[in-house]
């Protein structure tokens, strides 16, 4: 939690116009080795909270001399523990997205403490593979998922979708991922009814034996739980 952030004023707030004061975390990723929780705060930057909780530490507010403008997600490499995250755009942020007065562009970036790929169309996600050899991330406006191979430093289209993908999460099952997207037709899992018709922006799977899937949204001040089985 930010040092100057007022808990009484900010907790439960979903108004993006209060983001510069309260912050807005659009991505989290847990490092099971260190016990740290990494945060992609779209207003304050890339941060981390230690295993004992408390106030977060801002790790970076920009890359390659360019300030972060719209952080949307992060993930920890399960093998190397490197952290990768997405900056969706250099021209608009969550406030203009909510108002609907923006034009999607290709100014987004995939970042690992440095820019590893740019010219992206509103990127989000991202998620490392189970062996840590590649990263999957979404391009929201192009309706597709991109694979970035770390060793080869190359990208390729992994999957084209009929809707706009947002967050991607690695599941405990090797080779499987959850994708939060809108306007998808005939998918095996539809969370819309269970989440009160609120746009789902984030997914996280925990406790695989109990079959729990946790979902979040920028439009909701709570976390929903979906029973998969």
Automatic annotation (TrEMBL):
Gene Ontology cellular component annotations, sorted alphabetically: endomembrane system; vacuole
Matching SUPFAM superfamilies: Calcium-dependent phosphotriesterase
UniProt main location, coarse: other
A GO term for molecular function: hydrolase activity
Keyword Glycoprotein appears in the UniProt entry: yes
Swiss-Prot/TrEMBL keywords: Glycoprotein, Vacuole
InterPro entries, per the entry: 6-blade_b-propeller_TolB-like (IPR011042), Strictosidine_synth_cons-reg (IPR018119)
Signal peptide positions on this chain: none
Keyword Glycoprotein among UniProt keywords: yes
Subcellular location: Vacuole
Pfam families named among the record's database cross-references: Str_synth (PF03088)
Residues covered by the Strictosidine synthase conserved region domain: 74-151
Sequence similarity: Belongs to the strictosidine synthase family.
PANTHER family hit by this protein: PROTEIN STRICTOSIDINE SYNTHASE-LIKE 9-LIKE, STRICTOSIDINE SYNTHASE-RELATED
Name recorded for this polypeptide: Protein STRICTOSIDINE SYNTHASE-LIKE 11-like
Source species: Coffea arabica
